[in-house]
Known about the structure:
The chain is 52% helix and 11% strand. By secondary structure, it is of the alpha/beta class. It folds into two domains: 4-18 and 27-46, no CATH class; 51-211, 3-Layer(aba) Sandwich (Rossmann fold), CATH 3.40.50.10490. The chain has a five-stranded parallel β-sheet with strand order 2-1-3-4-5, with helices on both faces. The longest helix is centred in the last third of the chain and has 22 residues, at 181-202. The radius of gyration is 19 Å and the shape is globular. The N and C termini lie far apart (51 Å).
Amino acid sequence: MTTTAEAVHAASDENRILACGAQDVDLSQDIDLSLALVGSEIAETAAEVDLLQLSRLAKEVQSAGNSATGRIFVAGAGRSGLVLRMAAMRLMHLGFDVHIAGDTTTPAIRSGDLLLLASGSGTTSGVVRAAETASKAGARIAAYTTNATSPLAELADVVVIIPAAQKTDHGSTVSRQYSGSLFEQVLFLATEAVFQALWDNDATPAEELWLRHANLE
């Protein structure tokens, strides 16, 4: 049975062959097909994320964020790291004490804190080292990855598996997109879903969240 993503792949291939070698090619059809491809892959992959895993991660965030002394740290490399920075901003809006690993004002992690990590492969050296440091300090670890048997997954107390291709899996049938794009896209949606669920549970008015938004811009 052909999936939506596979159908879009085939149409995109056909369009690319027809356009090959043409001068001043109109890319609007390719862009339309690419939007459909990205959207269908995201929808299909997000639907496969284990909601119990995501719920456990959300509870870890909630527990650390609501603790009188607990803090939340985020760490990731490349585009995954950028997604976690966006997630950190939203958690700050909820009133949580949030820090980004590597920033000059980030304090030492300790027992009672939570380290939130993301690595598609689960082997990114800096991310794994951060998990090792947090573990030695007695902090809790929550991680997003594609690889359930990776060093990162083994170090984490809570793992959310995003069933996307790893960035080095160039011949993958899971995704037509380049490198780890699908992982990063679904990672963003997962972090947004966690924020939305925590906010709905907290019921703080949006106006109050906005008062916490940065005013030094």
